[in-house]
Amino acid sequence: MKILVANLGSTSFKYRLFDLADPSEPVLARGAVERIGAASSPCTVHLPSGPQIREAAVPDHGVAVRMCLEQLTDPATGVLKSADEVAAIGFKAVHAKHLSGVVRVNSEVLEAMEAYADVCPAHNPPYTKAMRLLADKLPEIPLIAAFETDFHQSIPEPAKRYAVPEEWATKFGIKRHGFHGASHRFIATRMAQILGRSDARIISCHLGGSSSLCAISNGKSQGCSLGMSPQSGLPHNNRVGDLDVFALPVVLRETGQSLEQVLHTLANKSGLEGICGLNDLRDIEAAAGQGNAQARLALDLFITDIRRYLGSFLVTLGGADAIVFTGGIGENSKVIREAVCRDLGWFGIELDPAKNLTAKAESQLSADGSRVQIWTVPTNEELIVARQTRDLLAAAV
Ligand code: ADP
Q1: Ligand 1 centroid to residue 51 C-alpha, Å
Q2: Residue 62 domain boundaries
Q3: Single pTM value for the model
Q4: pLDDT at position 397 over 80
Q5: Are residues 236 and 303 part of one domain?
């Protein structure tokens, strides 16, 4: 069964095509259509025969998917005989009102996602716009949404709740829903294979453009640093992270701005960028190294907050068997990994500095004798979405 997994931006369509009939679950092709809506858009696909780039006018995501299917079915170089071979398009959907799990996209699902456009301003609007268009223009291909909140449905109620009036939680869904579910699920599954046991206590640190920690035991989420929205928890590249809501009236009064303007700043001009003006952790590390005090502060605050959640989840799980770093920062930044693990010997967490410096791809970073294993594992969110899409299709038969 061939599943196309889509990653949508407001002007981009990135995808991977999986063949899940093959037990090794290979990626047959991956590609991207960028600058959708511009006069000319580059459509790139990486095929076994090599990369192929076409420039074409791509006015919307519907045309982008058609372009991608054309490239995948090219008689000379493509990997599909016909577009009919694509059993479904799976989406890593973020959040919807009163809805989670893995579901076929229909008008009810779209309305539930649209109802949370303001809760997930960077994610839901481009997804619902593109999904509506695809449902209209390519009705023959089933669209499946695998929600990021699904993995966290196992979080026990006391860890899910905010201390707000009961009606807010039960009727309005004001709870810690948790996100990055596909990534944390991948880490749970992969670590069970690596450790050779499914009952391990794992703290998964997904650190990237947006970041979260997740406490996992027996393969199930027990807590996540992300709460009601993707703007919560750790500071993100440009999103705020945890903030006392009673800061809001002060900011509204002092700036004279509207609530929408202030929320826009919190979702787009805050986080690490709000502190130091830089968005990419590589630039922040370089600037801190050159003595930029604001960049140093942004790094230290990020590390402090990661350690705050790490400590909390060590207590949640009663210790840990493994700590795993993943995401663009977790997989690449030795500086962050070293700083997060520093002076945690009392907890049985000891990083091997040499292994940390030379780590590439999937590797163990803990010192010999460290009670807690430390790993870096490249995440594969798309594979999780492909599997979930396949499972939903299979269950529907
Ligand atoms: P997203 O959350 O957008 O999917 P990624 O998981 O790809 O993001 O992470 C992107 C971030 O990873 C970049 O913003 C950058 O800060 C960080 N990153 C990538 N490579 C490195 C590196 N070699 N050292 C430090 N940080 C890195």
Answers
A1: 24
A2: 2-147
A3: 0.95
A4: no
A5: yes
